[in-house]
Amino acid sequence: MKISTLLFVFITLSLASLAQSQSTIQQVREDLFYSDFDLEKCFEFDKSITALKDTSPLTQAYKAASEALIAKYSWNPVTKFNYLHSAQKLLEDAVSKDALNVEIRFLRLYIENSIPAYMGMSKNKKEDKQVIIDNIDLLSQINIGADITSYIIGYITSPKVSSAEEIELIKSKMAIN
Fold it and tell me: Which residues are CB-contacts of 66 (< 8 A; sequence separation ≥ 6)?
């Protein structure tokens, strides 16, 4: 009897922890996608992600996004470079741990598309775009919200990001789902 009670408590706590983790990452997503940033808000966003003490690949990718935002709004070139370099390392690690995660690949693609080419930090764009295109149907399986899903699809089907053939392929894949 005691073992079954202990097992029940363990399962309940595990499910509660998973639910808490899902709601936490959803809050991070919403903070990134629905906020207007300035440098102060970038540091607040970064601090909130760091406080999570979560080392999952997805959280790492959002940490990288926060550091890229700090770089974007910083005026000091050395600060910009250091934060971009750190963001790049976090993204590389996140991708190596979860290579088919469309959300991680999108964040890296978006960040790399935002970095001037002369900085040499945009080497994964083609690979990330292909992984996103190949797995775009997985967006409907993860609970990121309709607005964020629409944003990702709108971004990836932009003529600035994808060729006409790629856009047609994405649209056909989305029509199937």
Answer: 32, 42, 45, 46, 49
Query: pLDDT for 18-40, tens place per residue?
Result: 334 457 888 888 888 877 888 89
* Helix and strand counts by DSSP (H, E) for the chain: 8, 0
* pLDDT per position as a tens digit, 36-72: 888 899 899 999 999 998 889 999 999 999 999 999 9
Q: In whole angstroms, give the CA distance from residue 65 to residue 74.
A: 14
| CA distances in angstroms from 52 to 48, 73, 155, 166, listed in the order given | 7, 23, 28, 37
Q: What is the mean pLDDT of residues 118-141?
A: 90
Distance CA 9, CA 47 (A): 32
Angle in degrees, 0-180, between the axes of helices 102-114 and 125-134, rounded to the nearest 10: 150
Instruction: Please check whether residue 90 is in contact with residue 60, taking contact to mean a CB–CB distance below 8 angstroms.
Output: yes
Rounded percentage of the chain residues whose pLDDT exceeds 90: 57
Closest CA relative to residue 148, chosen from 77, 55, 86, 58: 58
Q: CA 80, 81, 84 angle in degrees (round to 5)?
A: 85
- Asked whether the CA dihedral 38, 44, 50, 55 is positive or negative, the reply is negative
